[in-house]
Every structure is written in C-alpha cells, then in structure tokens.
Fold these 4 entries.
Entry 1:
Amino acid sequence: MSSSATAPTGAEVVPEGFRIERDLPVGRHPILAAFPGLDRLPTAKRLVTDAAARRRLFGATSVELVDQDLWMYVAPFEAPKNARRGWRPVVSPGADCIVVGANHLRTSSPLMLFMDIYHELCHILQRQGGADLWPPGVSYVKRWTEIEAYRFVITEARAIGVPDDYLREYLRVEWISDEEHRELLAEFGVPAH
C-alpha cells in the first residue's frame, strides 16, 4: 500500500510524458486508461527491463476507481485474514488490479500519483514473484515488499530532483506511528528535519 500526504509547495516535478486521466468514471479500467503512456516512461523501463514482460504487465493490470476515501493499494486475490480492522478491500481473484480512490486520482498532485502508481506496480511484480503483500505479524515498515517499493519510487523521485521535504511527507502514512515514520526516513536516508 502506498502513501500519501499533502505535497509541499514547489514539488511538482514529474517525468515528461506522465499523464493522468482525472475524469475517469468509477469502475474498473485498463491501467493505461488512467495513466496513458505510463508503460513508455523511462521509469517503466527501469521497473521491467524486458519489453515483452513490460507489455504483459501493463496489458494485464487494471485500476479500479472507487468512490471511497483512500489512496491506492493492490487488490488482494482474497481478503487478507490479518487486514486492519474495518478495512474491506476490493478483491480481484486471479487478476492484477490497483484500487485507486477517486478523489486521490482527481485531486492529488501529479508527483504523488506518479510515485504511488509505480509503488503499487512494484507490489504487483512482487506478488507475481510469489510474495505475500500482507504477511501476518510483520509491521508495515518492516515488510521487505514495502521497503523495496518505496526504495524504487524514492530513487526515481530523487533522480528528477524531488526534495527531501517532499519525501519526508510522502513517507508519513496515516497508519504508522511517528517512530515507524522515523524508521522509514532512516531506511531511505531522508533527514528527519
């Protein structure tokens, strides 16, 4: 699951060619309907170097836009038994789908959406490789899947000049404690102040 925080002013740099279809209706759509050209960005080529594998990833992955107050997550094939109390995820048996809150798609900064969608694509690849995205008893900030996905998007963000103050806020997710936030900052070398 990826993060989200309010972006500091001035952090609106995104790779050339990153596009968002903000008026997409609620429902399930091909990922490239929500983010046209996402598969052709240099970031996509770094995520999946093999062109055929990249075509398969972007051709088979969908997004489900929901009218709920949430950011993004990979729809589980079945509801995780250890899900946070009150979380009733969209499930997508056997199909790769990223669930996106409609408000997030319509109003969040392009940079946040860029980082979030690639974070979730990392999770799709991890799950395709056999990873459990919701391992029981493992803290969010200790899951190798989260560390790997955040590391990928933070590396991409730094390459386009995103400042540490933006990254610090991006890593401040509502379901972790201040101490866990500091752990994430230390993991990625983002100064706490």
Note: Residues 141 and 180 are 6 Å apart (CA to CA).
Entry 2:
Amino acid sequence: MEKIRILIADDERPAREYLKRLLAEFDDVDLSGEAQSGTEALEAIKSLKPDLALLDLQMPEMSGIEVVRQLRKTQMPLVAFVTAFDDYAVQAFELNAVDYLLKPVEPDRLRETVDRARERLEQTDWRAAETERIANAAETYEASTRNEPLTRIPVKKRDDIYLIPVADVAAIVADGELLHITTAENDRYVINFRLKGLEARLDAERFIRLSRSALVNIDHVDRLSPLPGGTYMIVLSNGQQLESSRQHSKLLRSKMLKL
C-alpha cells in the first residue's frame, strides 16, 4: 500500500510533536514535513507537495484558511483543519464536507481522517473538489463570524482551555504575535492571534482601538486623562493604564466624550 504523505502545520511545538507521535503509530503514512506558521505552511505545501495537510486553523501571519487560499488548484492537497472548539468553524466544515480535527486530537479521529484522505485520493479530479469544498467552507465561516460578535474567548493555560466571557475583558494588547488579555478582575491571559482578526469578531460598540496595538472595552474605562498633543491616558477600572495614539484619539472623543 502506498503511503500517504502528510504535512503538519501548527505554531505550537507540543501540538506538532503530539500529532507526530500519533502518526508514528500508523504504518500507512509518511511525515513529509512540518511548519510553525502560515507562511511556512504555504511554502512547504508548494515545495513538498503532501497528499494531506493538517493545518492549524489559527496560526501567525496566515490562518489555515488563508494558506489554502494562496494555493493554485494544481497545488492543493487534501486538508484537515486542526482547531480548538469553534462553533462557527465546525458548522462551516461540516456543511461543506471539509475534514477537521478538534484539539486535543483523538487517535481514532485522526485514523478516520487518514482513511478518508485515502478514499478521496482515489477520486478523479479530487483537487478541484477539495478546492471547492474549502472555498465554500471559508465563505460560510466568515459570513457566520461577521454576523454575530464573539461572546467568549478560548484561552489555553497548560493543558486546560478557559472560556473567557468577552464582557469581562477590559483590554487586549498586542506584543508581536501574542495578544495579552486583561480582565476586569485583573486576570491575565496570553493567546496567539492577530489583533485585527480578533477585533473583527468583537462588538464594535463595546471595543474600540486606542492604538495600533491596543483595544479597550469601554464598559471598563474609569477615566481619561488628557496628554500633550491631543492624546489621552486611559485608566481602566482594574487600574490598568493605556495611552491612546493621536490617530485614534479623535474616535475616542466621539465615542466617549460626547453627551
């Protein structure tokens, strides 16, 4: 039996190592490579030409969906998206028959994915079918996330996943590829996500930009102190202080300082 060549793409090394250990138990697969970002995954798919790509849905630089959107139909492998539980993503994938794996990945579920990939590889023009399935799933997913604001943010701490109510979030500050989330109770969490992407999922009436790297929940703003140059120091109810940029101070005034 010819082995299925698999690429693993996940920004977290433990997640990649875990998938590699599971795949090592399968005698009909061959690990062709791995990637730790969306950009690396895109280049690896183009150069290594795997049969099946296990793509983390959320990665630095490019999400799993954005990766496959950059591929021509002739470059498209079979794809299984790997994600923490996301109602919208699961619904989009199931509606459009796109394979997915929920973290933590179960060995039996991974086995099903490999078997399904083998069946699809035997179909005529499977690349065109996969391209269409993923395009439809991406459209469904993005339409769903645009229409309804996020209510909870999944945050991983060690082996546990906490669901943080968005209403409790006071501020979100970007630092490179990481987002630092602070709650009204001063609990702090770190996630790997793009600020622009998360902002699009939040209620625009509640969360406003202070700068290129900071979002604040206006429900948790205690006071604003004017600074030279028309900017402000924003003091939150938890004591956290953030400075607004000149560019975003105008929006801040219109949102918060008008009766």
Note: The helical segments are 13-24, 38-48, 64-69, 87-95, 107-121, 126-147, 195-201, 246-256.
Entry 3:
Amino acid sequence: MALGTDNPAARPDGDADGQPVSTRSRILDVGERLVQVRGFNGFSYADVAAELSVTKASLHYHFPGKADLGEAIVTRYAERFADALTAIDAELTNAPAKLAAYADLYAEVLREERMCLCGMLAAEYETIPGPIRSALVGFLDDNEAWLSLVLNKGRDDGSLSFVGSTAVLARSIVSGLEGAMLVARPYRAVERFETAAAQLLSSLAGAN
C-alpha cells in the first residue's frame, strides 16, 4: 500500500473509486501533507482554510481545535500504515522480503517529497499536544511490535541472522529508517535513503 502517490491528498476531487471526498477528509489530507512537509507547528488553520477555499469556521466545525485535527491525522495515518503492514503479511511470507517492503513504505513517502508523518512529529515531541504524543507513541509501538514478529520468524527459519533481543532490533530498524529519511531530505535524493535502508537490512541476512 502506497502512503505517497496513492494518498487521497493527491486526489482533491475524488477518492480511489471516483467518489466525492468529504470536507472532513479533505481537511485531513491537507493537514497531513502540511505536517509531513512543515511539521505540526509549521502550519495554521488559516493555511488549511486558504488551501481548501473554506472558512476557518468550517474547519472548527469538523475539528474544534488544532490538537483535535492533529490527533485525527495521526490516527488515520496509523490506520493506513497498519493496513499496509497487513497487506505485506498477506502478500509475502519471506521475512527479508517483508522488511524490504516495510522500508519501501518510507521510500514511497520520500518520493512525494514528504517525510514520515510520525517522524516529523517525533522531532516536535516536546511542543505537540498530549493526545498527539499518545497517538504518536502508539504508532511507533505498533510498528516495533510488527517488526519483532517478522524478526522472530526470520530468525526461526534461518532467513535472518542476528543476536540479541528482537524488540531492541525492531527499535533500531525504525530509528535507522527514520534517520535515513531525515538525512536524505536536504539532498532531495531518495537514492540516499534506499542505499542506507539496503545496507541496514543486508546486515540481517541469514544463511538461507
């Protein structure tokens, strides 16, 4: 599942089935993109209203405050990411292939000249509202839990080789991919991310 090109934000007039997109969804689309490009503290309701040609009162009708909008953005993003992980599990059985597909979710976002939504929020953690912090931590925890399952399976069947805790390694993978995105961003070079991700994952190659 793509989190970049297939994002509804690229389709302001309709969803994937050609159906009209609700005002609420359009607000979330624009807000998500702004967070990914500028950060949560880098945009205002006025920015969203101007882009959608609606009044700020309309935004407040759907999301009483910016914190409410931010929490909804993270929740929706986490749900889409979870769907992507479910799709990976359904389509792939090999642990290394699953890890490569996972890394490509990040690359897809970079190809749209955006950053991982939760990576951007993590950089602003001390200044974002509490509910957004909680949603962010939940997203990271869920990703680490999924990676731990993949790592355990790979170690059991010999397709991956590593020592130590799968939980610690899962954290290292998330941290490594988020960091690789951050370093690649100033160069606008997805290749820098892809090279770093490939190097990270190749270090886990097993004997099979």
Note: The chain is about 70% helix and 0% strand.
Entry 4:
Amino acid sequence: MKMRLVVFALGLAVVGCSPPSSQKSNPAPAGSAPPIVKVVAVESHALDTTLDLPAQITPYEAVDVYPKVTGFLDAISVDRGSRVRAGEVIIRLSAPELEAQRGQSEAAVQSAQAQLSAAEARFASDHGTYLHLTAAAKTPGVIAGNDLLVAQQTAAADDAQVQAATRNVQAARDNLRAVSQLESYLDIRAPFDGVVTERNLHPGALVGPAAGQGGAQPIVRIESTDRLRVTVPVPEAYVAGIHEGQQVMFSVPAYPGRTFQAPVARISQSIDQNTRTMQVELDFRNANREIAPGSFAKVNWPIHRPYPTLFVPLTAVTTDQQRTFVIRIRQRKAEWVDVQTGVTSKGTTEVFGDLQAGDEVVAIASDSIRDGTAVSGQSR
C-alpha cells in the first residue's frame, strides 16, 4: 500500500515539472500594435475675443505756459495743484519799457492827427479858391487861364497831402494798437479749464519768449483732467474691424478690480513702421477726476474677424527647431502639417495652414510622433 502511494506522488511531480502544452504552441507576435493617441477635430468659427493691451493715459489738452513778452514776473496766483478756469489771469508781468513805447505811440498818433488836420485845412482853402476861380473864369477876360491851372494843381497837391496824412494816422494807430496788444500779454491767462501740474518760476524772475532771454523753461504747466486720452498702440495683426464709437473696457493700477469704459474716438489709420502698431485713442470723460493723467492702463481690446478661421487646442501645436506644426491623423498615419498661429482664446489658438474644419489632429502633439508613423486615433 505504501509503495503505491509513493509511485503516485512521483507521477504527480513529473507531471508538474513538464511545461504546458499551450505555451509551446503559441509563440509571441512578431510586431506590436500602433500606438493610440488622443485626437480632436479642427474647429471653424469667427474669432470674437479680447486681448489685454498696454495703454498710456494723457490729458486731452496740455500746455507749457511761456510769456509772449520780456518782463519781470510781478505776481503768480497759482501753484502746483491749483485749478484754473479758461480766461482767468494767473500771472502778471511788469515791463516799464512797454509803458514808454505806449507813450511814444500815443504821441505819434496825436502828431499824425494834427498833420492831417493841417493838410485838410489847406486842402479846404485851396480847393475853395479853385472853385471860386472856376466860377469867375466863366466870364471871359476876368481870370487868366494860367491862374486857374495853378489853383487846380495846388488843390490836387493838397488832396494828396491829406491822403498821406490819413495813412500816417492809420499807421500810428496800428502801432499804438500793437503796443497795447503787447501790454495785454503782461497778463497771462489760462487757455482752458484745467489744473496746474508744474510751477517753475517765482516773482522777481526775468522771463521772456521761448526764443529769448529767460525762456528756457515754462512758468507753469496746465493740463485738463476732466477729459483724458487713452492711447492704445494696437498691433498690426489686430487692427481689423476697429471703428469709432466702439466701447472698450480698461483698468488702471490705482483701482485694482475696477474697470472703466470709453469709446474709440480717434484712429490714426496708419501703421507705425518702427513699432508695427496703429495708435488708437479712447476719449474718457473723467468727471470725478479719479484717474490721473500719466497713468498706465490695461485695455481689454476686442478682436473680431469678419470671416471664420480654424482653431485647435494650444497643446495641439508643437514645434521643433525648424518648423511649427500640428499632427494630423489621416488613414491611420501621422502627418505633420506646417501652420502659422494667430490669436489665442480660451485654451485654443488660431491656425493657418493646409487644414480643413473637421480634420483630426493629435490633442497633445509632440515631435516624438514622427511624420508618417502608424498611429491609431481616439477621440477625446
């Protein structure tokens, strides 16, 4: 009985050591299956998005105030931060030499008027004599013809003297008016409503026109703060579709979390060749004077295409050292398609190349997927 049990155990051991028959009959396959990649379809739609662009805020009007005549700064009633109204006298100059010129001009006017009066009196007398002789000459033999001719020429000369004296009076009055105009420049007035942002000179300073003595720097600078220009340098690629009146949102660092709105007011209609941008201005009514001129702004610039373009996910575009491309799956093979990228919006980017809407491209492209290799696409 014990011998039978031993023989049976040995038999089981031999059977357990032998290889399975199935492993012998099914060898490993010669090649592996094509890799499976996630694919997405190329989409087509009209671009309608926004892009953050930097901008500069400047006053609608700004001027450096220089004197028009040379004189001493007698009084200045404003300082940095002062608000002024258009036409308000803010600076007074003194120029004694202008007072002397005015006196001379007034005397010249009076002298010219006196000369005119004398000339008119002579003309009246001589013209009256000529008329009397003309009447007497109607009686034959009473007046010699030469006497009548002399009287006529004398009256004509007197008339010419009157005309010359009249012109002298007008010239003297014009000169007096010019001196008076120069004197009016001694009172410097604000050219528009605004705020004084700089004051460089003080009473007692000798000032003059910008080209003359004392004109190296302005007396004050005035800027309008109730109305501002938001100047946006729009890149060449994004200028299509801009029109006046279009409302645009922007923000400034002084008010984080807040947005402001202004219409497009002025378009330069020309691309700057140095920066490849077009200057566009928004017209912002700064009624509460919240925004300071000189601030930087971030403009939420709207971008529209009047025609549909193609879009793929950002990850579907890859590049190597020589080209930018997407990987299209066609007939279970990878195909590199060169593209140019456009605007990025909501995780997708515009692509321009040999593509059509509905083409399947690798969702996460990599140059490790070589052109022409066999792949199997799986929609996400």
Note: The chain has four helices and 21 strands.
